[in-house]
Protein: NADH:flavin oxidoreductase/NADH oxidase N-terminal domain-containing protein
Amino acid sequence: MSSVVAPLFQPLKLGPLTLRNRVVMSALTRSRSIDTVPNKVNVEYYRQRAAGGAALIISEGTLISRQGTEWPYAPGIWSDEQVDGWKKVTDAVHEEGSLIFAQIWHVGRVAHPDAPEQKKTGEPVYAPSAISARGGKFRFIDGQPGYTTPTEIDDPRKLIELFRKAAVNAKKAGFDGVEIHGANGYLVHQFLDTTANNRTDQWGGSVENRTRFALETIKAVSEVWGPDRVGIKLAPCGGYNDVGMPLEETLETYRYLISEIEKLKLAYVCVVRYAEAMDPVIDGKKRATQHDVVESYRSCVKDVRFHLNSGLTPPEAAGLIKDGKADAAVFGFLYVAHPDLAKRIQFGKPLHPEITKFETLYGREGTLEEQAAGYTDYPAETYDS
Ligand code: PHB
Structure:
């Protein structure tokens, strides 16, 4: 192994778990479940990535209820059938020596009343406040309807309860822990952000109030798992899904939240760096608040692991780990075309991100066999042993 990437291959203690290296596979929405239930093609996809050496796999965003969904092909974790489907995934991952956390997810205001799954529930689209996101892209709704004004949730504890139930189901499904999706402008992020949350009760306004939903969700999920098997993903720069606050407010909010996460002794906080691709132009300007998340937040945690996500190259990630600027590197895009990413890095095999087929990044209607195209058909390299 080249000494440049060696820091990526030191084991890492994560609560009671030991990661075999520092290569983490990010949650990636690939939309290959049918009727929200994980299937054998999903099992094969995760098995390949575990066999390819990833220490820890974060499941694709997994919906905690049918209400608050956007896509029909994203999996959920509210039913026994989904739990059974996930159990086959977690068994396969464990057989290949990896660990897997369930990323639990509610999209809040960026669901749409006409989205097929949301419609089935007969419930409105809930969010912290009745403020619509600007823009809107719905992969499975005809035309360009744009986001709608959501219904302000009367008691946010109802949504926290859904996260708790999802955590219970994740345990039944054999996951090793859970990651709360607190990033990318979805429900938890909407509570944090003053441009999406203008509540005047204990869930809005001050930093303490806006972080309450995230922290209470963490506490609810920690009661199920113990805090040392819970992680949270945060994207302080915002951008995607029309969130993002002025810099001072951002720093104040996220420094407070991450410092509280340190007190709660979670397994890790996954912090997403600024990424151009996640920063839409809204009303003629880029939406995100660009800043250096390592500089800004690394020092807020000591015992809690700091996972860094977005746009990392392997040598860069190894350097950041060597310098103590991150504990683990979370790769997303590179995992699409390289099931054996960790092994490739370890054994110096080439990476070919240019072969990634964007037209099959997301699944669409079709048979299970058709879902495999651009999903499980990227080859691994061959290795001697
Ligand atoms: C997406 O499918 O576009 C997506 C889903 C979840 C994320 C980010 C992007 O966190």
Summary: The chain has one domain: 6-371.
